[in-house]
Amino acid sequence: MSEIFPLAQKPAPRVALVGGQWAQNVGNAFFNLGGEYVLKRVFGEDAVGFFQDQPNYRTLHNKFKGNPETYVDFAQYLDIDYLVVQGPVLGGWIRESWEKAFRALRDNGVKVIFLSSAFFKFTDKEIAAVKSFLEEYPPYLISTRDDRTYGIIKDWLPGVPKYDGIDSGYFLNRCVNPFKVREGFRYITSNFDRYPEPELFSSDPGDKYNSRQVEIEGKTYFVSVPKFLDKYAHKGKIKGYLADYFDKRKLPETFDGRLIVRPEHRFFPHITHKIYRQSNATASDEPWTYINIYANADFTLSDRVHACVATLAFGSPAMLFTPSPRSALFGRVGAGEIRNKLVTLDLGMLHEEQEKEIEWLKDHV
């Protein structure tokens, strides 16, 4: 009878990093992975593990309705020292999402850390709701991802340490080592899965388009979207999907001799006609494919904040096409003009900001 040998035992992780919802927005994975790197630097390689995000964040669900009544909020049963939440978690529905878990964690002596945190809409109503919740359930510390959020909360909860930090997605260049592409192969990324993808014209396409002039690599282009599509898409997320359904354009496969690669950040719900309607499209339920694509691109045009974050983190230019207030995270790293032009990060400056944040966290945990 053969003897069964147990696997080598490691201590169980003591820091639970809340993550997930990757398939509905892979950008979440970018700051999840960066946050994992940060926490491992702070607490140690074996101290950190992932745990699931709340289910009421799912696509097209009214988040104010909270989690399903039958949901087991299992985080409250973990034997841990810290629970870490990230991203635009300071939303108006924070109580509906987290009150049950935070109450149990508080009663169990677990410390809650807000890392790379931000408001979602920055409305007065949202800010008041978040302030009320945090006064009732004060976290152990708060590190923000943009100056705007930090400016709002810096005088709240005097006993809670706060840091004007950066988005954890900017740490991707420290924790992911992308493949290289073959010598001579060049491409750009065009990621528009919320608003219609603009076309790049060398001359004004006329009054049927909403256009603006942008300089790309020393040349002036008209970045243009058909007016009727643009107007409809800005009426809401569902209308944005309908605008895509009525978009009958066939967009070019190349730009200035380079392939146009079109990643879609929303793998689920998997709307196949939307994802693969244009050439050179790709979608995945894991983040590393996207990170490789952005890391090697000549530049990125996108309506997704974290497509631009990933591109910038690896040293390439990016330009953002969205009115979302969550774009405030670019100003924190000197890229505040990203909605007006292609911008590039100073990677030396970024490295300094990364290390300063890690050292501050080490000093306060």
Question: What does the secondary structure layout of this molecule look like, with pairings?
Answer:
Elements: E1 15-19, H1 27-43, E2 48-52, E3 82-90, H2 94-107, E4 111-119, H3 124-136, E5 141-144, H4 147-153, E6 162-163, H5 172-175, E7 187-191, E8 199-201, E9 209-216, E10 219-226, H6 227-233, H7 237-245, E11 254-255, E12 258-263, H8 272-275, E13 281-282, H9 288-296, E14 300-302, H10 305-313, E15 318-320, H11 347-364
Parallel strand pairs: 1-2, 1-3, 3-4, 4-5, 5-6, 7-12, 7-14, 12-13, 14-15
Antiparallel strand pairs: 8-10, 9-10, 11-12
Helix pairs in contact: 1-10, 1-11, 6-7, 9-10
| CATH architecture annotation name of the largest domain | 3-Layer(aba) Sandwich
CATH class of the largest domain: Alpha Beta
For this structure, the CATH topology of the largest domain is: Rossmann fold
Number of structural domains: 2
Radius of gyration from CA coordinates: 21 Å
Find the structural class using helix and strand composition. Answer: alpha/beta
Oligomer state equals single chain
Largest sheet: 6 strands, parallel
**Average pLDDT figure:** 94
The rounded distance between the terminal residues' Cα atoms is 50 Å
Shape: globular
Helix share bin:
25-40%
Strand content: 15-25%
Number of helices: 11
Contiguous low-pLDDT stretches (5 residues minimum) are: none
> Element order, helices and strands?
EHEEHEHEHEHEEEEHHEEHEHEHEH
Instruction: Give the strand tally.
Output: 15
Going across the biggest sheet, name each strand in turn: 2-1-3-4-5-6
